Amino acid sequence: MYTSLDNMKNQLAGILEGAGTGSVTIIDENSLRQQAIDELVYTAVFSPSDEVKNAARLTIRSAAAALGIKPASIQGLYEAMGRSEVTGFTVPAMNIRGLTFDAARATFQAAHNLKVGPFVLEIAKSEIEYTYQRPDEYAIAILAAAIKEGHRGPVFIQGDHVQANAKKYAANPAKEIDALKKIILEEIEAGFYNIDIDTSTLVDLTKSTLDEQQRANFENAAVLTQYIRDNQPEGVVVSVGGEIGEVGGKNSTPEDLHAFMKGYNAAINGGKGISKISVQTGTSHGGVVLPDGSIAKVKLDFDTLKTLSEIARATYEMSGAVQHGASTLPSEMFDRFPQVGASEIHLATEFQNMMYTLIPEELRDDIDAWLHANLANEAKPGETTQQFIYKTRKKGFGPFKQQFWDLPESERGKIREELRKKFEFLFTKLNVVDTVEHVQKHVTL
Fold first, then answer.
1. Helix (H) or strand (E) holding 241
2. Regarding beta strands 69-71 and 276-279, do their DSSP bridges make them parallel or antiparallel, or are they unpaired?
3. Most CB atoms closer than 10 Å: which of 25, 173, 271, 325?
4. How big is the CA angle at 282 (ends 110 and 268), to the nearest 5 degrees?
5. Of 47, 58, 151, 50, which is closest to residue 107 (Cα–Cα)?
6. 259 and 389 share a domain?
7. Residues forming a β-bridge with 364
8. What is the percent of the chain with per-residue pLDDT over 90, rounded to a whole number?
9. Where does a domain end: 22, 45, 66?
10. Which of 401, 348, 425 is nearest to 120 (CA)?
């Protein structure tokens, strides 16, 4: 990595001017992509000097902007989907928990190969914490990957599951909502112009009416929507998502959707609202792991997904319903999502599982040992070792972040190639091939 600001400027001489500033001029894009961007992003993530780290981040942002690579909101496209002007595909939203630069590179490679327009790279509030990736670092790694792969145009970065903790909310509602505002502001400042509010954890099924069951959900979703509107950059309309049923809980119904939207729309009082709605259709995050480490089959309710997507568009002019917890579903299911009109699908665990399979055995053993030593309190009675490791392995990405990034290019290249093939499979199944023109028409930089 670069050891100082002067070292950075000297090494980048002849490649770009203005290193460490907000005004970069690209002199030699080929040299920037071949090697310099790798050193910049590594410095931006791991430099022990805040001065050098921040200079590298600013250089990457400036270089990306100079090349026409900019964080963007998908709002315009989702509004067009809400008007049924654009149909026939489901937008993939992919959570990258580890090896973010390399995994994002694989995403851009697959998207360019298949001329994919709308695809989202996201990270959840919980993932930010256990993968040790603050929003600014995550966004920088993605922009660096876009530079590396010769991307041009918008980059959709999303804050997934900005989720209220029900217990903390019950103890102190204002403090919990303020904590969500804090992460939202950090995400917006990092270039997350797509944010999924998740106050579905506050739904209270013990209440006698649907309106009361959803009240804490829609009231707080409205408060956070307004906070986003108050803090979004001039010229940007952040795409905001809401959620009516916690993933892994009770399946959502049309009545749930109407109760939420009636209350939510009244609360935002004519303001710009959500562009999509996340629903529960029978999945769970990461899937349900069996004692042998395999994943239990899921009975996903496509009829519910279709019905709620149709209501979302026809009645509320949203893009449709969003499917969570889907990456471990059988491969033959994925072409069903565009068929039933799902507007977005969130994918995460399968990419994590692929990485763990492909990393060297020695590193995998080190991570497993760390999980046993540090997370033994998370083991449940009767749980097998396979179940424990599968459930907790996501929390190995943070402590071993640098070990992942320090893998030799031969290992990282192998992982990128397998991820690229997986992304191309998913993009094809979700029917986003040859969709660049939709983004060009409906998305404003």
1. strand 239-243
2. unpaired
3. 325
4. 80
5. 151
6. no
7. none
8. 90
9. 66
10. 348
Task: Retrieve residue 200's tokens.
Answer: 């579905």
CB 25 within 8 A of CB 60: no
Same domain, 434 and 291: yes
Provide the pLDDT for residue 330: 86
393: helix, strand or coil: helix
**Is 180 in the same domain as 252?**
yes
Specify whether 269 is located in the same domain as 283.
yes
Q: DSSP assignment, residue 376?
A: G
> 13-59, pLDDT tens digit by residue?
999 999 998 899 999 999 999 999 999 999 999 999 999 999 999 99
Whether the model clears a pTM of 0.70, i.e. scores above it, the answer is yes
CA atoms within 13 A on the CB side of 389: 17
Domain that includes residue 48, residue range: 5-66
In whole angstroms, give the CA distance from residue 86 to residue 74.
13
Residue with tokens 């390399």, as numbered in its chain: 102
Q: Could you tell me if 294 and 374 lie in one domain?
A: no
Where among 38, 66, 94 does a domain terminate? 66
Q: Are residues 292 and 383 in the same domain?
A: no
For 11-119, strand residue ranges (E) read 16-17, 25-26, 69-71, 91-95
Structure tokens at 88: 């026939």
Q: Work out the angle between the directed axes of helices 37-46 and 135-148 (0-180°, nearest 10).
A: 170
Contact criterion met (CB below 8 Å) for 32 and 147: yes
Task: Name the CA radius of gyration of the chain, rounded.
Answer: 21
